[in-house]
Amino acid sequence: MEKTLLKSPVATINPPGIEIIDDKTYTSVGSVSFPKRKTEGILAPYVEAYYNADKNILTARAVVYVDVNVSQNETFTCSIFQNCYVDMNGKSQLQFFIAYDMPEKISKDFTIYEIDFHAKQDIFPGNLSDVETIQTFLWDIDPISSRGTETIVRPT
Fold first, then answer.
1. Residue (of 131, 32, 33, 20) closest to 85 by Cα position
2. What does the buried/exposed string (b/e) look like for 110-123 if buried means 16 or more CB atoms within 10 Å of the residue's CB?
3. Where are the beta strands (DSSP E) in the chain?
4. 152: Cα separation from own chain's centroid
5. Within 13 Å, how many C-alpha atoms sit on residue 19's CB side?
6. Domain count of the chain?
7. What pairing do the DSSP bridges indicate for beta strands 75-86 and 18-27?
8. What confidence score (pLDDT) does residue 153 get?
9. Within a domain: residue 2?
10. Quick one: which of 47, 45, 28 has its CA closest to 111?
């Protein structure tokens, strides 16, 4: 069976939500290789999230992996979008999208970037203290692929 790839009628598709960080550039913190990798596509980010009750701040740190051949001078530029959804229990939950534009291809060598960001309380209808998990996605705006993970929010 042959794979069918649909083309978007627009050049880019931004993720849902409100942009909270616009085109910030990050510097590499290292690299990693997966010598036997045979598929193209995005590697899921590793994410940790913490809530500071004293300051009412929810902070997330994502480790993302970018194809070493497409990162420029060991830098990675992306935007971050914050979205809210209501879960099956009627509770407001948070999603974050790390949006970038890079070609999809098979890669075995990746540059590693750490991306820190804070949830914006003013665009979240619930209380940050009630958030138990967040979802964080890498979102390629070209718009062929995205990849995400769910993370437990821990107290600091």
1. 131
2. bbbbebebbbeeee
3. 18-27, 30-33, 46-52, 57-67, 75-86, 92-100, 109-118, 133-140, 146-155
4. 15
5. 10
6. 1
7. antiparallel
8. 86
9. no
10. 28
CA distance 114 to 130: 26
Give pTM, 2 decimals: 0.85
Identify the domain containing residue 64 by its residue range: 18-35+44-155
Measure the CA–CA gap between 129 and 110, rounded to whole angstroms.
35
Q: What is the pLDDT confidence band of residue 10, given thresholds at 50, 70 and 90? A: low
Residue 110 belongs to some domain of the structure: yes
Residues in the chain: 156
pLDDT tens for 46-103 read: 999 999 999 999 999 999 998 888 777 889 999 999 999 988 888 899 999 999 887 7
Has residue 5 been placed in a domain? no
CB 126 within 8 A of CB 91: yes
- Which tokens is 70 given? 């497409």
Judge whether residue 21 has pLDDT over 90.
yes
Beta-bridge partner residues of 77: 25
Residues 104-155: tens digit of each pLDDT: 778 899 999 999 999 999 999 989 999 999 999 998 887 565 556 677 888 8
In the chain, the largest separation of any two C-alpha atoms, in whole Å, equals 56
Residues 20 and 81 sit within 8 Å (Cβ to Cβ): yes
Q: Is residue 67 part of a domain?
A: yes
